[in-house]
Amino acid sequence: MACNALVSPQLPTRVIDVGSVDEPRCVLVDSTGRVGAYVALSHCWGSPGTVPKTTKATLSQHKQCIPDSVLSNTFRHAVEITRGLGFAYVWIDVRTNGRDVLNLDDPEDWAFEAAKMRTVYSESAITLAAASAADGKGGCYHNRSSGEEFEYPNTSDSRQSIRVRLPVDHAFFDALSAGVQAHKSVERFPLATRKWVFQERMLSPRVLYFTKHELAWECRTEVACECGGADCLATPHDTGYSLAMPKTSFPLANSSAPDISAQAALLERWAILAEEYTSRSLTYPTDALVALSGVARAFDAAGLGAYYAGMWEHGLPLDLSWETVYQPDLHTAESQTEYIAPSWSWVSSRTRVAYPRPKNLAERTRRLQYCCTDIIRITSIPAKTDPFGHVLEYESRLEISAPALCLSVTGVGVDMPDIDLFGWPAQHFAADSNACPTHLVADEVWIACLERRRPEGQNARGNRTGCSLVLEELNGGIFRRVGLIMPWITHDDGGFGEAVEAAPRKTFRII
Ligand SMILES: [Zn+2]
After folding, report:
1. How far is the CA of 211 from the centre of ligand 1 (A)?
2. Which residues place a Cβ less than 5 A from the ion ligand 1?
3. Are 3 and 205 in contact (CB under 8 A)?
4. Ligand 1 centre and the CA of 134: distance in Å?
């Protein structure tokens, strides 16, 4: 997918007119109906109060002139760079930076602008990423070591010099790509670890990163940096994943309905995206669906069916088989109660999730033959107007039918990902959100079989076979997913697998 030529799209609702190098200005413009090439900014907000904001009270003043004193370093640098690159407009989320600001000022305006995020980033000419700034003070420019100069005599005995520097640290790129545990790089690469920034990067056709060490470039065909060391990052790692992959494998907005194998590839892409997204964090975990909505919109045109809070119709029921990655240092005693998303959606996880691999067409087809969960009904009701945004807790339900066993919990592994069930101790268990559900001990759970075991030899290399949802009954016959059980990795589970598969079918309404 080549990068589109620069176009002059409709400008976002409000942009800053930066003038030019010869005639600099800094004015907020209401750009309704106007077209032009513009630059977008991707940055970390930092704590509320440290970000400049345009409120209803200052809106008219900022339309005359935005005083330098209200601009943070990052914003000031973005204005200068935009001008220097020869663009007249920069889009900075001046109204939507920081939730406190939004809630106090105009929550409806926030919801409206957030829903338009996809267009803002995907139609920008270029996105400037303040990659090493934890907040507005950090800015885009950094003091770099210019290296050491050494003098030496040459053959004609005149003196010459050579400049030497240490190799550039490219860990930033690793932090951007998959498999990075966000909490480990949050201090070094604040921008790479934020969920909001994830979609800004995905949607932008071109990103210019201002890192501590150098400038780097990423578009749909190229990854490059000043020192040249990023070239190797654009080729797939041994995991089959490359830094350039997120953009190159992104669906085109106008793709027609894909054939069944293209659909499998897109669903695999969505699964990788789920893994990447959940390895990042949010200041407000309840924004998880909203901060994903722009990417979801981009996939919406790709023919995956209806969208349900992070899940695609055509990916079900197999895509219910996400599991959390066990992270001992992030392991908590109990899950928190704030509602993020339905428990059946991976978006509800507060920590990194993983999907079984591979997800290619052949493997999907094989897995479907052994899938024994039927989807009866699924609904997700948007909390606001955006169908891709936050959803209502009790209205967003999944109804399934599956073979299921009710068992009492005799213990949960505090230091290990396992669960003891009456008669079947130490079953391999991934607790949702990586949270140890100690409240279930001495209580009962339902084990709903998602996939039956496959015979030896039909199992993809390194992949598991069979898995079950672990469901906790709430009041009124409503259930909540608490984890995924994978008892059949070794086929030596003391008959647990047979017992679950042979259990009578039961219908569950899961929120
Ligand atoms: Zn480099």
Report:
1. 10
2. 168, 225, 227, 229-230
3. yes
4. 21
Higher pLDDT, 194 or 28: 28
Alpha carbon of 93 to ligand 1 centroid (Å): 29
* Integer CA distances (angstroms), 501 to 81, 320, 451, 504, 510, in order: 62, 17, 9, 8, 20
Of residues 31, 25, 21, 32, the one with CA closest to residue 65: 25
Q: What is the pLDDT of residue 244?
A: 44
Average pLDDT over the chain, rounded to whole? 80
- Report the pLDDT value the prediction gives residue 180, as an integer from 0 to 100: 47
- Bond from prior residue into 12 cis (ω within 30 degrees of 0): no
State the pLDDT confidence band at 253, using cuts at 50, 70 and 90. very low
Tell me which residue of 147, 99, 129, 108 sits closest to 199, measured CA to CA.
Answer: 129
Q: Residue 213: CB partners within 8 Å, gap ≥ 6?
A: 142, 144, 168, 169, 172
What letter represents residue 283's amino acid? Answer: T
Helical ranges in 41-98 per DSSP H: 59-64, 73-84
| Distance between Cα 228 and ligand 1 center (Å) | 5
Q: In this predicted structure, which of 64-78, 176-190, 358-372, 483-497 has the lowest mean pLDDT? A: 176-190
Using CA atoms of 76, 78, 80, 83 in order, give the dihedral in degrees to the nearest 10. -140
C-beta separation of 175 from 192 below 8 A: yes
Contact, 171 vs 151, CB < 8 A?
Answer: no
Token reading at 226: 């000043």
Over residues 2-28, mean pLDDT: 82
The pTM score is: 0.81
How far does residue 226's CA lie from ligand 1's centre (Å)? 5
Helices (H), 314-360: none
Is residue 100 scored above 70 in pLDDT? no
Beta bridge partners of 429: 485
Mention every residue, 6+ apart, whose C-beta is less than 8 A from residue 184: none
Q: Tokens in use for 49? A: 């109060």
State in Å: Cα 245 to ligand 1 middle. Answer: 18
Cα separation, 445 vs 148, whole angstroms? 65
Which pLDDT does position 23 carry in this prediction? 92
Among 367, 342, 345, 217, smallest CA distance to 278 is for 345
Neighbours of 128 (CB within 10 A): 26
CA–CA distance, 426 with 438 (Å, rounded to integer): 15
Q: 255 is written with which tokens?
A: 């793709």
Gap from CA of 146 to ligand 1 centroid (Å): 14
User: Would you say 57 and 30 are in contact if contact means Cβ atoms under 8 Å apart?
Assistant: no
Average pLDDT, stretch 116-131? Answer: 87
Between the CA of 150 and the centroid of ligand 1 the distance, in Å, is 22
Q: For 178, how many CA atoms within 13 A lie in the half-sphere containing its CB?
A: 23
